[in-house]
Protein backbone atom coordinates (compact mmCIF):
# COMPACT_ATOMS: atom_id res chain seq x y z
CA UNK A 1 0.00 0.00 0.00
CA UNK A 2 1.23 3.49 -0.86
CA UNK A 3 0.13 6.87 0.46
CA UNK A 4 -0.49 9.84 -1.84
CA UNK A 5 -1.30 13.45 -1.01
CA UNK A 6 -2.74 16.35 -3.02
CA UNK A 7 -4.35 19.67 -2.18
CA UNK A 8 -5.94 22.89 -3.41
CA UNK A 9 -7.46 21.77 -6.71
CA UNK A 10 -9.85 24.75 -6.40
CA UNK A 11 -12.42 23.65 -8.94
CA UNK A 12 -9.95 22.46 -11.59
CA UNK A 13 -11.29 18.95 -11.92
CA UNK A 14 -9.61 18.14 -15.25
CA UNK A 15 -6.13 18.94 -13.91
CA UNK A 16 -6.80 16.93 -10.75
CA UNK A 17 -8.03 13.98 -12.80
CA UNK A 18 -4.93 14.07 -15.03
CA UNK A 19 -2.57 14.32 -12.06
CA UNK A 20 -4.21 11.32 -10.38
CA UNK A 21 -4.09 9.36 -13.62
CA UNK A 22 -0.36 10.06 -13.92
CA UNK A 23 0.29 9.06 -10.30
CA UNK A 24 -1.82 5.95 -10.74
CA UNK A 25 -2.77 5.07 -7.15
CA UNK A 26 -4.13 1.54 -6.92
CA UNK A 27 -7.32 0.39 -5.25
CA UNK A 28 -5.37 -0.51 -2.11
CA UNK A 29 -3.55 2.81 -1.89
CA UNK A 30 -4.64 5.81 0.17
CA UNK A 31 -5.08 9.28 -1.34
CA UNK A 32 -5.15 12.21 1.06
CA UNK A 33 -6.85 15.39 -0.17
CA UNK A 34 -5.95 18.33 2.06
CA UNK A 35 -8.90 20.54 1.31
CA UNK A 36 -9.74 23.56 -0.85
CA UNK A 37 -11.54 21.47 -3.43
CA UNK A 38 -14.02 24.28 -4.03
CA UNK A 39 -14.08 27.92 -5.24
CA UNK A 40 -12.16 29.86 -7.89
CA UNK A 41 -11.97 27.24 -10.67
CA UNK A 42 -14.83 26.42 -13.07
CA UNK A 43 -16.06 23.10 -11.66
CA UNK A 44 -15.90 22.78 -7.87
CA UNK A 45 -18.76 20.27 -7.85
CA UNK A 46 -16.82 18.14 -10.32
CA UNK A 47 -13.86 18.11 -7.93
CA UNK A 48 -16.09 17.09 -5.03
CA UNK A 49 -17.59 14.27 -7.08
CA UNK A 50 -14.19 13.05 -8.27
CA UNK A 51 -12.69 13.06 -4.78
CA UNK A 52 -15.67 11.20 -3.34
CA UNK A 53 -15.33 8.56 -6.05
CA UNK A 54 -11.72 7.72 -5.15
CA UNK A 55 -11.25 4.39 -3.36
CA UNK A 56 -9.69 4.87 0.08
CA UNK A 57 -9.67 8.66 -0.18
CA UNK A 58 -9.17 10.48 3.10
CA UNK A 59 -10.29 14.06 2.76
CA UNK A 60 -9.56 17.00 5.06
CA UNK A 61 -11.34 20.32 5.31
CA UNK A 62 -9.77 23.46 3.89
CA UNK A 63 -10.51 27.08 4.66
CA UNK A 64 -12.61 27.37 1.51
CA UNK A 65 -14.84 24.48 2.58
CA UNK A 66 -15.14 26.20 5.96
CA UNK A 67 -16.11 29.49 4.27
CA UNK A 68 -18.73 27.64 2.22
CA UNK A 69 -20.30 26.14 5.34
CA UNK A 70 -20.14 29.44 7.26
CA UNK A 71 -21.83 31.24 4.39
CA UNK A 72 -24.63 28.69 4.15
CA UNK A 73 -25.26 28.92 7.89
CA UNK A 74 -25.16 32.71 8.01
CA UNK A 75 -27.87 35.26 7.29
CA UNK A 76 -25.28 38.02 7.09
CA UNK A 77 -24.89 39.32 3.54
CA UNK A 78 -21.32 40.28 4.35
CA UNK A 79 -20.46 36.58 4.70
CA UNK A 80 -21.82 35.96 1.23
CA UNK A 81 -19.84 38.90 -0.15
CA UNK A 82 -16.59 37.72 1.46
CA UNK A 83 -17.10 34.19 0.13
CA UNK A 84 -17.85 35.43 -3.39
CA UNK A 85 -14.81 37.73 -3.28
CA UNK A 86 -12.74 34.64 -2.49
CA UNK A 87 -13.99 32.71 -5.51
CA UNK A 88 -17.18 31.25 -4.06
CA UNK A 89 -19.40 32.27 -6.95
CA UNK A 90 -18.34 29.26 -9.05
CA UNK A 91 -19.20 26.93 -6.17
CA UNK A 92 -22.55 28.64 -5.63
CA UNK A 93 -23.46 28.23 -9.31
CA UNK A 94 -22.43 24.58 -9.24
CA UNK A 95 -24.47 23.77 -6.15
CA UNK A 96 -27.49 25.69 -7.50
CA UNK A 97 -27.43 23.53 -10.64
CA UNK A 98 -27.81 20.31 -8.63
CA UNK A 99 -30.93 18.58 -7.49
CA UNK A 100 -31.62 19.60 -3.90
CA UNK A 101 -30.91 16.14 -2.50
CA UNK A 102 -27.47 15.90 -4.15
CA UNK A 103 -26.55 19.41 -3.04
CA UNK A 104 -27.59 18.60 0.51
CA UNK A 105 -25.62 15.35 0.43
CA UNK A 106 -22.45 17.14 -0.71
CA UNK A 107 -22.82 19.82 1.95
CA UNK A 108 -23.41 17.22 4.67
CA UNK A 109 -20.29 15.38 3.54
CA UNK A 110 -18.19 18.56 3.62
CA UNK A 111 -19.47 19.39 7.11
CA UNK A 112 -18.07 16.19 8.61
CA UNK A 113 -14.57 16.48 7.10
CA UNK A 114 -11.78 16.35 9.72
CA UNK A 115 -9.11 19.02 10.10
CA UNK A 116 -6.04 16.78 10.24
CA UNK A 117 -4.62 13.29 10.11
CA UNK A 118 -1.36 11.62 11.11
CA UNK A 119 0.16 8.87 8.99
CA UNK A 120 3.32 6.78 9.31
CA UNK A 121 4.83 5.32 6.14
CA UNK A 122 7.90 3.38 5.04
CA UNK A 123 10.66 5.81 4.06
CA UNK A 124 11.83 4.56 0.68
CA UNK A 125 13.90 7.55 -0.33
CA UNK A 126 17.51 6.89 -1.34
CA UNK A 127 19.70 6.46 1.73
CA UNK A 128 16.82 6.22 4.20
CA UNK A 129 17.46 2.60 5.10
CA UNK A 130 21.20 3.16 5.58
CA UNK A 131 20.60 6.19 7.78
CA UNK A 132 18.05 4.29 9.85
CA UNK A 133 20.61 1.53 10.35
CA UNK A 134 23.17 4.01 11.67
CA UNK A 135 20.58 5.45 14.07
CA UNK A 136 19.36 2.01 15.10
CA UNK A 137 15.74 2.63 14.13
CA UNK A 138 13.25 1.61 11.48
CA UNK A 139 13.14 3.42 8.13
CA UNK A 140 9.78 5.00 8.87
CA UNK A 141 8.58 8.57 8.62
CA UNK A 142 5.58 10.20 10.27
CA UNK A 143 3.64 12.98 8.54
CA UNK A 144 1.23 15.49 10.07
CA UNK A 145 -1.35 16.31 7.41
CA UNK A 146 -3.50 19.42 7.55
CA UNK A 147 -4.69 22.16 5.23
CA UNK A 148 -2.69 25.24 6.24
CA UNK A 149 -0.10 24.25 8.84
CA UNK A 150 0.33 24.16 12.61
CA UNK A 151 1.23 26.38 15.56
CA UNK A 152 4.66 24.84 16.08
CA UNK A 153 5.26 26.47 19.47
CA UNK A 154 1.99 25.04 20.81
CA UNK A 155 2.86 21.65 19.29
CA UNK A 156 6.25 21.52 21.00
CA UNK A 157 4.78 22.63 24.30
CA UNK A 158 2.13 19.92 24.13
CA UNK A 159 4.66 17.21 23.31
CA UNK A 160 7.07 18.37 26.02
CA UNK A 161 4.27 18.16 28.58
CA UNK A 162 3.35 14.73 27.24
CA UNK A 163 6.90 13.58 27.98
CA UNK A 164 7.66 12.23 24.52
CA UNK A 165 11.36 13.04 24.83
CA UNK A 166 13.75 14.17 27.51
CA UNK A 167 13.02 17.80 26.65
CA UNK A 168 11.19 20.40 28.70
CA UNK A 169 10.42 22.64 25.77
CA UNK A 170 13.68 23.04 23.87
CA UNK A 171 13.84 22.01 20.23
CA UNK A 172 16.00 18.98 21.01
CA UNK A 173 17.38 17.03 23.94
CA UNK A 174 21.03 16.32 24.65
CA UNK A 175 20.90 13.06 22.69
CA UNK A 176 19.99 14.91 19.50
CA UNK A 177 16.34 13.89 19.34
CA UNK A 178 13.59 16.43 18.81
CA UNK A 179 10.85 16.90 21.35
CA UNK A 180 8.62 14.98 18.89
CA UNK A 181 10.90 12.11 17.88
CA UNK A 182 9.65 9.83 20.64
CA UNK A 183 5.97 10.54 20.03
CA UNK A 184 3.84 7.73 18.67
CA UNK A 185 0.99 8.29 16.21
CA UNK A 186 -1.63 8.37 18.98
CA UNK A 187 0.24 11.11 20.87
CA UNK A 188 0.71 13.12 17.70
CA UNK A 189 -3.02 12.82 16.97
CA UNK A 190 -3.77 14.15 20.44
CA UNK A 191 -1.36 17.02 19.84
CA UNK A 192 -3.02 17.87 16.54
CA UNK A 193 -6.44 17.75 18.19
CA UNK A 194 -5.20 20.38 20.67
CA UNK A 195 -4.35 22.81 17.85
CA UNK A 196 -6.60 25.75 17.06
CA UNK A 197 -8.97 25.03 14.17
CA UNK A 198 -8.23 28.51 12.83
CA UNK A 199 -4.52 27.70 12.66
CA UNK A 200 -5.08 24.36 10.93
CA UNK A 201 -7.24 26.11 8.32
CA UNK A 202 -5.64 29.54 7.95
CA UNK A 203 -2.11 29.85 9.37
CA UNK A 204 0.51 31.05 6.92
CA UNK A 205 3.55 33.24 7.72
CA UNK A 206 3.96 32.01 11.31
CA UNK A 207 4.11 28.42 10.06
CA UNK A 208 6.25 28.80 6.95
CA UNK A 209 8.53 31.46 8.37
CA UNK A 210 10.26 29.41 11.08
CA UNK A 211 11.34 25.80 11.71
CA UNK A 212 8.81 23.64 13.51
CA UNK A 213 11.42 22.18 15.85
CA UNK A 214 9.79 18.78 15.42
CA UNK A 215 12.67 17.27 13.39
CA UNK A 216 15.83 16.94 15.44
CA UNK A 217 19.56 16.93 14.66
CA UNK A 218 19.31 13.17 14.05
CA UNK A 219 16.74 13.79 11.30
CA UNK A 220 13.96 12.06 13.21
CA UNK A 221 10.57 13.55 13.93
CA UNK A 222 7.31 14.28 12.09
CA UNK A 223 7.12 16.34 8.91
CA UNK A 224 4.14 18.65 8.38
CA UNK A 225 2.48 18.48 4.96
CA UNK A 226 0.18 21.40 4.12
CA UNK A 227 -1.38 23.31 1.27
CA UNK A 228 -3.21 26.66 1.49
CA UNK A 229 -0.23 28.82 0.48
CA UNK A 230 0.39 28.64 -3.29
CA UNK A 231 3.97 27.60 -3.91
CA UNK A 232 4.55 30.46 -6.36
CA UNK A 233 3.95 32.84 -3.42
CA UNK A 234 5.70 30.79 -0.75
CA UNK A 235 8.93 32.78 -0.79
CA UNK A 236 6.98 35.74 0.64
CA UNK A 237 6.61 33.74 3.85
CA UNK A 238 9.14 30.90 3.97
CA UNK A 239 12.84 30.62 4.58
CA UNK A 240 15.03 27.58 3.90
CA UNK A 241 13.04 26.59 0.81
CA UNK A 242 14.32 23.67 -1.23
CA UNK A 243 13.50 25.51 -4.46
CA UNK A 244 11.82 28.66 -5.67
CA UNK A 245 8.24 27.37 -5.56
CA UNK A 246 7.97 27.60 -9.33
CA UNK A 247 9.06 25.23 -12.09
CA UNK A 248 9.93 25.90 -15.71
CA UNK A 249 7.42 28.28 -17.22
CA UNK A 250 6.56 29.57 -13.72
CA UNK A 251 4.29 26.63 -12.90
CA UNK A 252 3.59 25.99 -9.24
CA UNK A 253 5.33 22.98 -7.73
CA UNK A 254 5.66 21.14 -4.44
CA UNK A 255 8.40 22.47 -2.16
CA UNK A 256 10.26 20.96 0.77
CA UNK A 257 11.10 23.53 3.45
CA UNK A 258 13.43 23.63 6.43
CA UNK A 259 16.24 21.21 5.57
CA UNK A 260 19.41 22.27 7.42
CA UNK A 261 22.35 20.77 9.25
CA UNK A 262 20.28 21.11 12.44
CA UNK A 263 17.71 18.67 11.00
CA UNK A 264 20.31 16.29 9.48
CA UNK A 265 19.28 17.64 6.07
CA UNK A 266 15.63 16.69 6.52
CA UNK A 267 12.83 19.09 5.58
CA UNK A 268 10.35 19.65 8.40
CA UNK A 269 7.58 21.05 6.16
CA UNK A 270 6.29 20.30 2.66
CA UNK A 271 4.07 22.67 0.67
CA UNK A 272 1.75 20.78 -1.68
CA UNK A 273 -0.30 23.70 -3.03
CA UNK A 274 0.80 23.92 -6.67
CA UNK A 275 -1.13 27.14 -7.34
CA UNK A 276 -4.12 25.67 -9.19
CA UNK A 277 -6.12 28.58 -7.75
CA UNK A 278 -4.26 30.93 -10.10
CA UNK A 279 -5.58 29.00 -13.11
CA UNK A 280 -3.91 29.17 -16.50
CA UNK A 281 -0.98 29.64 -17.18
CA UNK A 282 0.83 29.12 -13.82
CA UNK A 283 -1.55 26.79 -12.01
CA UNK A 284 -0.96 23.09 -11.53
CA UNK A 285 -2.31 20.25 -9.44
CA UNK A 286 0.32 17.99 -7.90
CA UNK A 287 0.20 14.54 -6.34
CA UNK A 288 3.00 13.31 -4.07
CA UNK A 289 3.68 9.73 -2.98
CA UNK A 290 4.93 10.06 0.58
CA UNK A 291 7.01 6.88 0.66
CA UNK A 292 9.54 8.19 -1.86
CA UNK A 293 8.23 11.76 -2.35
CA UNK A 294 7.86 11.27 -6.05
CA UNK A 295 5.60 13.92 -7.56
CA UNK A 296 3.30 14.03 -10.60
CA UNK A 297 1.90 17.29 -12.01
CA UNK A 298 -0.88 18.32 -14.35
CA UNK A 299 -1.09 21.89 -15.62
CA UNK A 300 -4.33 23.86 -15.64
CA UNK A 301 -4.89 24.34 -19.34
CA UNK A 302 -6.37 27.37 -21.00
CA UNK A 303 -10.15 27.35 -20.61
CA UNK A 304 -10.03 24.89 -17.69
TrEMBL record:
<dbReference type="InterPro" id="IPR029052">
    <property type="entry name" value="Metallo-depent_PP-like"/>
</dbReference>
<dbReference type="GO" id="GO:0016791">
    <property type="term" value="F:phosphatase activity"/>
</dbReference>
<feature type="domain" description="Calcineurin-like phosphoesterase">
    <location>
        <begin position="3"/>
        <end position="232"/>
    </location>
</feature>
<dbReference type="InterPro" id="IPR004843">
    <property type="entry name" value="Calcineurin-like_PHP"/>
</dbReference>
<dbReference type="GO" id="GO:0008803">
    <property type="term" value="F:bis(5'-nucleosyl)-tetraphosphatase (symmetrical) activity"/>
</dbReference>
<dbReference type="GO" id="GO:0110154">
    <property type="term" value="P:RNA decapping"/>
</dbReference>
<dbReference type="Pfam" id="PF00149">
    <property type="entry name" value="Metallophos"/>
</dbReference>
<dbReference type="GO" id="GO:0005737">
    <property type="term" value="C:cytoplasm"/>
</dbReference>
<protein>
    <recommendedName>
        <fullName>Calcineurin-like phosphoesterase domain-containing protein</fullName>
    </recommendedName>
</protein>
<dbReference type="InterPro" id="IPR050126">
    <property type="entry name" value="Ap4A_hydrolase"/>
</dbReference>
Amino acid sequence: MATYVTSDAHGHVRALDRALELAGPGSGDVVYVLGDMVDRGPDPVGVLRLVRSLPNARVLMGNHERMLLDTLMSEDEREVFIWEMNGGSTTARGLDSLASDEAADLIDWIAQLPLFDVVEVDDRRPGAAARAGVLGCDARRTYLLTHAGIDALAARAYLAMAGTAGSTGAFADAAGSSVASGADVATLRDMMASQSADDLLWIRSEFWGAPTGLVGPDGRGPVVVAGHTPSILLRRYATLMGGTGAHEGMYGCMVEVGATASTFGEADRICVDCAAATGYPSGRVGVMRLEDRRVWYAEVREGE
